[in-house]
Design goal:
globular, alpha/beta, disordered N terminus, single chain
Length: about 280
């Protein structure tokens, strides 16, 4: 299945993830999976997908979680993986092929509006893929309708506040003196930190119809690779990458200060920094 209906609902995000951001995630795919894979694993443990189940992977990206879900529900279960990023889906299909995972179907579409079959999934999962909806209540109502009533369950992992994520906060703090003054971002605008407020997340899920909502904080060190890889990573992923793209003359001095900053977190040849997430679970009542 390809190209879901009403693509305009998330037009800005579709453009963003099909251009520079999607290409960056493809280029850094292996490094990103090392970094955020353990955080996704924590959410998977809570979801506990079982053999024979049908699971929807929302914002599947380059397919790391999709392949793992497919392995867990095999041989009789299936995974539907949805994402708005064409370049990332191309990699995801390749990863599924390399893993010989034949119980996966990919959809290039917006999960906020895509017409999923009603009451068809045992579980919905996402690793950092649900914070980008323009209308999160509408999106989760759509996902709720796709779950089997009474037994269907939801599980995802999302970022807490920037200040609670050292791996993003420290590089940003180091770079800001070298960049023009910035307006304070809208804390609930679609983006990585849109779900930083647990009460907001609970309200969204409640309004969408979910019950048995659990939102648990989890802190863990994440690995950004060797020092040079870590510098490149921080400069190319997230808000700092956008600022550097808008201010090319600042790239060289920012990269230099990033190297000095990240060197303090290097241990045994790898940069490891703190990450703070919410592990979220709920049920379709």
């Amino acid at each position: 299945m390809e190209n879901g209906t009403n693509a305009a609902a998330n037009a800005d995000q579709i453009t963003y993830w099909n251009a520079r951001a999607g290409d960056t995630w493809v280029a850094l795919q292996k490094r990103l999976d090392v970094q955020i894979g353990p955080l996704g694993e924590k959410a998977l443990e809570r979801l506990a997908p079982k053999a024979g189940e049908s699971v929807l992977d929302v914002g599947c990206g380059c397919g790391h979680t999709t392949v793992e879900l497919a392995r867990r529900v095999a041989p009789s279960g299936k995974v539907i993986a949805i994402d708005i990023s064409k370049p990332m889906l191309e990699v995801a299909r390749q990863q599924a092929g390399l893993a010989h995972a034949k119980n996966i179907e990919f959809i290039e579409a917006d999960a906020q509006t895509y017409p999923f079959d009603a009451n068809s999934f045992d579980a919905v999962f996402s690793r950092f893929g649900v914070m980008f909806f323009v209308d999160p209540v509408a999106a989760f109502k759509n996902l709720f309708a796709a779950l089997k009533p009474g037994s269907g369950r939801l599980g995802f992992v999302c970022w807490r506040k920037l200040a609670e994520n050292e791996w993003m906060a420290a590089p940003m703090a180091a770079a800001m003196p070298l960049l023009p003054p910035q307006l304070r971002p809208d804390p609930i605008a679609p983006g990585p930190f849109a779900f930083a407020d647990a009460e907001r997340v609970k309200g969204i899920l409640t309004e969408a119809g979910f019950g048995d909502i659990s939102i648990v904080p989890h802190d863990q060190k994440v690995e950004l690779g060797g020092l040079q890889d870590a510098v490149e990573h921080c400069a190319r992923v997230g808000a700092l990458s956008r600022l550097l793209n808008e201010n090319p003359s600042a790239v060289d001095p920012v990269m230099e200060t990033l190297r000095d900053t990240l060197q303090e977190f290097e241990t045994d040849g790898a940069v490891k920094m703190g990450a703070g997430v919410w592990l979220v679970s709920a049920r379709a009542r």
